[in-house]
């Protein structure tokens, strides 16, 4: 059954449109399950009805005409309960309803499963049989699996506009991911095609068919030459049988085999890379389905050849165009900062990526630039999105493809309101961050990029609460040397002097890899990251500590922060290395005072070791993002569980309140430098809990300052007391929204549904 399932899925994925995919699926399922009928009912959210979209076994004239409300009949019951229904004698069921147009009176057995995509009902898949038959567990498991596969196909069809039946007017589709940078935008998609990825080549209509054909032939000839040269180099080192494979490759590349078929697709209206990808995918899918082992193995050869030819085609084709739409939404499998830099800033309206996370380098840059960004959008059908109009919601991690006029109008209004608010708040950014009852709440900024060293920030903040030293490491091709690092750190320290600058030692691992120092782990967030890496590589940490100390000469505003601390021993080891660096530099004639040192509180274990840590360090800094994900056991960058990651979870708020209380008892200053600090409601809670300072990305400063200037410290303390008594994240968020509404500050929060 698994082999049958694999083949059906391959055929469905290879279909050019939704109708073809549905027709393939119902026919293959009926055959595989040895049943009389297989049908698919599509759910229309506007009419809240299930429409018969495809069938084999029922009357074909019923397609598109028979519909049921949710809860009506057996199909409606499956949709209502969102669970399978398996009946041996369907007409005997009290919910059974007969539709004359379908001709289903002949059938007794019924098995229906819901089609659900990201908790959203899309339809119902049904099989029926004339004789009374109880479908067994294997049948049910097979149909459930097919239903899960169809959910993805349907979502893609919605996004690409290939679902044009009246049941779903407009073809609007919603995809969700991880909200990485706030803001909203309406624009046109420009797809960044990864090099040599046959599954991510966008569809484009060629402007010059003959030129595309010439490009194709030149690319094929270059690959033929590469293979011929490789065969000659290896002729004396491999057997005649292995050498024969090079001849097979040459035959596959011959005019009759590959070139003519791709050329035909180009003449049908597809550019060369897209035509090549279409043909290669079709050949691979065919070869993977055949029973002959030798031919199945050739599928990998065809795929490899396709990638080689595609690589040569892409040498002449820029990954992204030279001319960009006025409002460009850059979409790709994985967008690099280098690619980001190719788009004129005034035309870049938003970013969307299949891969990536809220703490990836591109997310950090996007937040610094104030560009709405959603990452980890795993279900996005990249090849069919080029040129599509979209609405991007960076607050809630949403992408609407081919939005309705009503949705566009709503978001145009929200975007206008947000722009007006930014303009209003700009007028008070040079005013102190002080509550109406005189409490000063120091606001600091998170930096790590050249863009963050703006002098205009200096008079608006109390210092840099977090300088991410890993960012310069990420954009280099090797570990930067001591002098190179010292220059970077000096620029940062001088730009903000005499304000304090808290520099975090190299924090790689998790989702922050260095290209020249990859860390491949099954569970990177619980693996080798932060101080665990640098203590294992003292040569890297020593160079960094020496560079920081060199850079701080004569400025006296350096503070050092140790990330991902789990054990007190780690702090002791790091402090010994710092003392050694000071001693070594002194021997070289460079005298530097010992800077203040702090630890990041982001591993839950540190909550129970504060007393021991307080004996060793000068301050604490809470990494609320990591602390939240570790407390809740939720990977915040996984879109499948992103909704469970919530800094307003009562357990997180209780932990934060305890940290503030214990730090006060230990007389150690404590700062919060996660996303929670940059949220106006979160900032008010943290102020009420007693945190000494808040550090955030620069674009978050205006809203947080506005909230603090309008809410007294006593009111914030009352808010904390009320909130800690609540039991669910939803209740917390509703209460915060209500309170800020009473204080006429709801406009500072992200828009709600």
UniProtKB/TrEMBL annotation:
<keyword id="KW-0762">Sugar transport</keyword>
<keyword id="KW-0963">Cytoplasm</keyword>
<dbReference type="GO" id="GO:0008965">
    <property type="term" value="F:phosphoenolpyruvate-protein phosphotransferase activity"/>
</dbReference>
<keyword id="KW-0813">Transport</keyword>
<dbReference type="InterPro" id="IPR040442">
    <property type="entry name" value="Pyrv_kinase-like_dom_sf"/>
</dbReference>
<dbReference type="Pfam" id="PF02896">
    <property type="entry name" value="PEP-utilizers_C"/>
</dbReference>
<dbReference type="InterPro" id="IPR008279">
    <property type="entry name" value="PEP-util_enz_mobile_dom"/>
</dbReference>
<dbReference type="InterPro" id="IPR006318">
    <property type="entry name" value="PTS_EI-like"/>
</dbReference>
<dbReference type="InterPro" id="IPR008731">
    <property type="entry name" value="PTS_EIN"/>
</dbReference>
<dbReference type="InterPro" id="IPR029016">
    <property type="entry name" value="GAF-like_dom_sf"/>
</dbReference>
<dbReference type="InterPro" id="IPR003018">
    <property type="entry name" value="GAF"/>
</dbReference>
<dbReference type="Pfam" id="PF01590">
    <property type="entry name" value="GAF"/>
</dbReference>
<keyword id="KW-0460">Magnesium</keyword>
<dbReference type="InterPro" id="IPR023151">
    <property type="entry name" value="PEP_util_CS"/>
</dbReference>
<feature type="domain" description="GAF">
    <location>
        <begin position="17"/>
        <end position="164"/>
    </location>
</feature>
<comment type="similarity">
    <text>Belongs to the PEP-utilizing enzyme family.</text>
</comment>
<protein>
    <recommendedName>
        <fullName>phosphoenolpyruvate--protein phosphotransferase</fullName>
        <ecNumber>2.7.3.9</ecNumber>
    </recommendedName>
</protein>
<dbReference type="Pfam" id="PF00391">
    <property type="entry name" value="PEP-utilizers"/>
</dbReference>
<dbReference type="Pfam" id="PF05524">
    <property type="entry name" value="PEP-utilisers_N"/>
</dbReference>
<dbReference type="InterPro" id="IPR036618">
    <property type="entry name" value="PtsI_HPr-bd_sf"/>
</dbReference>
<keyword id="KW-0418">Kinase</keyword>
<dbReference type="InterPro" id="IPR050499">
    <property type="entry name" value="PEP-utilizing_PTS_enzyme"/>
</dbReference>
<keyword id="KW-0808">Transferase</keyword>
<dbReference type="InterPro" id="IPR036637">
    <property type="entry name" value="Phosphohistidine_dom_sf"/>
</dbReference>
<keyword id="KW-0598">Phosphotransferase system</keyword>
<dbReference type="InterPro" id="IPR000121">
    <property type="entry name" value="PEP_util_C"/>
</dbReference>
<keyword id="KW-0479">Metal-binding</keyword>
<dbReference type="InterPro" id="IPR015813">
    <property type="entry name" value="Pyrv/PenolPyrv_kinase-like_dom"/>
</dbReference>
């Amino acid at each position: 059954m698994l082999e049958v399932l694999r083949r059906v899925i391959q055929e469905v994925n290879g279909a050019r449109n939704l109708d073809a995919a549905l027709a393939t699926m119902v026919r293959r399922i009926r055959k595989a399950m040895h049943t009389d009928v297989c049908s698919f009912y599509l759910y229309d959210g506007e009419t809240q009805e299930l429409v018969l979209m495809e069938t084999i076994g029922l009357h074909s004239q019923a397609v598109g005409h028979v519909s049921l409300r949710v809860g009506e009949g057996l199909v409606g019951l499956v949709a209502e309960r969102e669970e399978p229904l398996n009946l041996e004698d369907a007409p005997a069921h009290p919910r059974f309803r007969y539709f004359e147009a379908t001709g289903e009176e002949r059938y007794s057995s019924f098995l229906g499963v819901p089609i659900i995509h990201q908790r959203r009902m899309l339809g119902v898949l049904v099989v029926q049989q004339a004789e009374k038959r109880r479908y067994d567990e294997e049948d049910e498991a097979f149909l459930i699996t097919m239903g899960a596969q169809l959910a993805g196909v349907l979502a893609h069809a919605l996004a690409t506009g290939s679902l044009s039946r009246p049941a779903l007017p407009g073809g609007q589709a919603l995809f969700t991911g991880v909200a990485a940078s706030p803001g909203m935008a309406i624009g046109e998609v420009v797809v960044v095609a990864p090099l040599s990825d046959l599954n991510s080549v966008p569809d484009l209509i060629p402007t010059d068919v003959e030129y595309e054909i010439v490009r194709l032939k030149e690319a094929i000839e270059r690959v033929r030459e590469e293979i011929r040269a490789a065969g000659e180099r290896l002729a004396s080192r491999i057997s005649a049988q292995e050498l024969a494979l090079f001849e097979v490759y040459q035959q596959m590349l011959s005019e009759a085999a590959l070139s003519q078929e791709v050329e035909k697709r180009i003449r049908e209206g597809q550019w060369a890379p897209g035509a090549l990808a279409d043909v290669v995918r079709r050949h691979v899918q065919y070869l993977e389905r055949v029973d002959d082992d030798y031919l199945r193995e050739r599928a990998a050869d065809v795929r490899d050849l396709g990638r080689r030819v595609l690589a040569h085609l892409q040498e002449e084709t820029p990954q992204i165009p030279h001319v960009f739409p006025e409002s460009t939404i850059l979409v790709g499998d994985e967008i690099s900062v280098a690619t980001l830099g190719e788009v004129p800033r005034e035309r870049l309206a938003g970013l969307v990526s299949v891969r990536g996370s809220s703490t990836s380098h591109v997310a950090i840059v996007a937040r610094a630039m104030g560009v709405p960004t959603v990452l980890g959008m795993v279900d996005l059908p990249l090849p069919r999105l080029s040129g599509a109009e979209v609405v991007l919601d960076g607050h809630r991690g949403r992408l609407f493809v081919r939005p309705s006029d009503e949705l566009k109008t709503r978001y145009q209004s929200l975007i206008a309101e947000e722009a007006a608010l930014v303009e209003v708040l700009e007028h008070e950014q040079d005013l102190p961050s002080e509550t109406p009852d005189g409490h000063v709440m120091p606001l600091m900024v998170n930096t790590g990029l050249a863009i963050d060293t703006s002098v205009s920030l200096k008079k608006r903040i109390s210092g840099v609460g977090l300088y991410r030293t890993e960012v310069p490491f990420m954009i280099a091709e090797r570990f930067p040397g001591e002098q190179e690092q010292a220059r970077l750190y000096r620029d940062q320290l001088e730009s903000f002097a005499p304000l304090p600058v808290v520099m975090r030692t190299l924090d790689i691992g998790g989702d922050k890899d260095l290209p020249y120092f990859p860390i491949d782990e099954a569970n990177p967030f619980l693996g080798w990251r932060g101080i665990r890496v640098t203590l294992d590589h003292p040569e890297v940490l020593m160079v960094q500590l020496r560079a920081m100390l060199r850079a701080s000469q004569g400025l006296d505003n350096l503070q050092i922060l140790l990330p991902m601390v789990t054990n007190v021993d780690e702090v002791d080891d790091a402090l010994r290395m710092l003392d050694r660096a000071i001693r070594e530099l002194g021997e070289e004639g460079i005298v530097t005072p010992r800077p203040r040192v702090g630890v990041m509180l982001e591993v839950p274990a540190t909550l129970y070791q504060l007393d021991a840590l307080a004996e060793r360090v000068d301050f604490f800094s809470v990494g609320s993002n990591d602390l939240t994900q570790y407390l809740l056991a939720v990977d915040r960058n996984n879109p499948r569980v992103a909704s469970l990651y919530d800094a307003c979870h009562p357990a997180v708020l209780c932990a934060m309140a305890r940290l503030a209380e214990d730090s006060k008892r230990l007389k150690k200053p404590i700062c919060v430098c996660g996303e929670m600090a940059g949220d106006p409601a979160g900032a008010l809670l943290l102020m009420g809990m007693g945190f000494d300072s808040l550090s955030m990305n620069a674009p978050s400063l205006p809203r947080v300052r506005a909230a603090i200037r309008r809410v007294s410290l006593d009111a914030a303390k009352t808010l904390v007391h009320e909130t800690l008594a609540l039991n669910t994240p939803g209740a917390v968020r509703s209460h915060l929204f209500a309170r800020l509404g009473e204080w006429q500050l709801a406009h500072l929060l992200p828009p709600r549904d």
